[in-house]
Structure formats: C-alpha cells, structure tokens
Amino acid sequence: MDPGQDAWVVKVDSMGCVEEGCYNGVIEITSGKGQYLGQNYPNPVNCETTIPYTISGDGILQIMDASDRTMDVYMLQPGQTQITISTETYPAGIYLYSIEIGGVVRVTRMFVR
After folding, report:
1. Which of 8, 42, 92, 111 has the fewest CB neighbours in a 10 Å radius?
2. Residue 53 belongs to a domain with what CATH number?
C-alpha cells in the first residue's frame, strides 16, 4: 500500500453479514421472459437443498464455490419447477448457483455449513 492511502477492514460473520442476524442473499430473480430463480431452502444447507426455478427453455444450473470453481452442473428442462441437490461433499462456505438460458444468466448464493 502506498503511503497516504487509507485502508479499511470490515469484520463480517460467517454469513457475510456486517451485523449479526442480517440476511445477505437474493430472494428471487425474475425476468420478463418467464424465467425465475428462487432462493434455495433450507439456507444455510447441511446435506441437501432445494432450488426453485421456472424456465421457458432448456437451461443449465451450475454450482460454484467462492473461488469460482464448478462443483456441479445440472441440465434443466422446462416444466420442472425445482431441483433438489446434495451438498454432502461440499466444504462449509459460500456458494453461488446460476441458471443460464439462451445466454441470460441469473445468479444467487447459498451457504453450506
């Protein structure tokens, strides 16, 4: 760091919250094209979680860790409204999951204990 530059340190809890008990996730993401990606439940996750979604065409669900490493990839078809995935092999931490449909990507995060 150069002399004269300010540095900030922000203390957060294991959920990425600055204050205890805050909610630091995206509830849902929708678009005008009939696409929806909901918050997984339960969240935080112990072993298994369900991700609600609506898509109008074939899609890809990708789970990534905080280092942007792909953990799992699932092919999705229209007509389904949710997918249940196992997180038993995932180390504790923050993960992102995304749905890609026709070049449009929607991203939400989940926490694994």
Report:
1. 8
2. 2.60.40.3080
